[in-house]
TrEMBL record:
Top-rank taxon: Eukaryota
Gene source species: Rhizophagus irregularis (strain DAOM 197198w) (Glomus intraradices)
InterPro entries registered for this protein in UniProt: HATC_C_dom (IPR008906), RNaseH-like_sf (IPR012337)
Stretches assigned to the HAT C-terminal dimerisation domain: 36-101
Official protein name in the record: HAT C-terminal dimerisation domain-containing protein
GO molecular function: protein dimerization activity
Length: 112
């Protein structure tokens, strides 16, 4: 847990979180076997409720400075001056499409 101090919940972890961490560390499985971290952590919610909820939040954060800069650049395009009147739901959908389709988003005709 010491190596993950960047996660604020690990600064002063609850007893339950410490117990779940110990259980998780005792698993004899390789996370590389799973293609989808979201599916992996959702499958652990009944065993590791607190740790799973944290993981489901943190797995979507950019992991490097390059990823962060790329995200800011993407958001600049999504939140351009032409799109100032977008509803929050529309912005979320644009984010989803952009980060799942990547640069290929321009190849799709999103408006019929």
């Amino acid at each position: 847990m010491e190596d993950y101090r960047v996660v604020k919940e690990f600064h002063f972890p609850t007893d339950a979180l410490i117990q779940e961490w110990a259980i998780y560390c005792g698993f004899n499985e390789s996370i590389e076997e799973f293609n989808d971290l979201d599916v992996y952590w959702r499958s652990k919610i009944h065993i590791l409720p607190e740790l799973s909820l944290l993981a489901l939040i943190y797995i979507w954060l950019p992991v490097s400075g390059v990823d962060v800069e790329r995200s800011f650049s993407s958001y600049k395009g999504i939140l351009s001056d032409r799109r100032v009147a977008l509803k929050e739901e529309s912005i979320q959908m644009l984010n989803f499409l952009y980060f799942n389709l990547g640069s290929n988003i321009d190849n799709y005709d999103l408006i019929e």
